[in-house]
Amino acid sequence: MSQSTNDQTNEQTNKATIAVGVIGAGGRMGRMLIEAVKDNSQTTLNAAIERQGSSLVGADAGEVAAIGRLDIAIVDDLISVINDIDVLIDFSLPDATEQNMKICAAHNVAMVIGTTGFNEQQEQVLAKVSEQVAIVYAGNYSTGVNLSLKLLAMAAKAFGNDADVEVIEAHHKHKIDAPSGTAYMMAEAVAEARGQNLKDVAVYGREGQTGEREAGTIGIHAIRGGEIIGDHTVMFIADGEVVEITHRARARMTFAAGAVRAATWVMQQSAGQYNMQDVLGLNE
User: Fold this and answer.
1) Residues that are catalytic
2) Cα separation, 189 vs 133, whole angstroms
3) Percent over 90 (pLDDT), the chain
4) Across residues 237-248, what is the average pLDDT?
5) Sign of CA dihedral 236, 237, 243, 249
């Protein structure tokens, strides 16, 4: 075999072999994910799934995402394409994600989950499924947000209960759950650093005669309007000074590219539940 042939063979061997499936392919996040999969040199789109009854079923996923034809037809049944993928990226709705987790577990397919708003039963399903396959589960896949979580933990440890903490998030008018998954992540980072259980100290909005603010509580507030992609601010309000840690998203591609990065990382992991800080090496 010639050196040229060897080089070509090595090049083919080193090419991306991670086959990705995207749930909600026709949605705004799904379209971004399809583009991000195409742009990542380690991944290839092998499946695009929409809900049953969607008018996009049968359409080419690349054309729907406005990035050119990919010769991947959108389907409405995950099971029909589950054997074609190594990892599924799911930014959909809790009930749908719950079923998708069970399907992936049965077929040994890794997952990257960005769905928010799970109830306790669905969180239990997540925990059980992650005993069988590797799952990255995060409320936010941006590098900046996950760095912010580290800064929040540092601030919470430094202030302790000497500062009142308020979490304020703003999203577009189409978002259907509140508070956001990122707001929960930020509040949990503060609570954990202070040795608290968020469920015991969270206060969601205020109305009427609320009385004085109880020390150690964490306020969480949601704003909805327009086309805000995602703004989050955590205020540490101490006597005489205020520290604010803010993250503002300016492009959804930030989240999509982070999710695809997580998809490449999760393929190297054993079964278990991971988060984006694991992907970024911030938990080391």
Assistant:
1) 171, 175
2) 26
3) 89
4) 97
5) positive
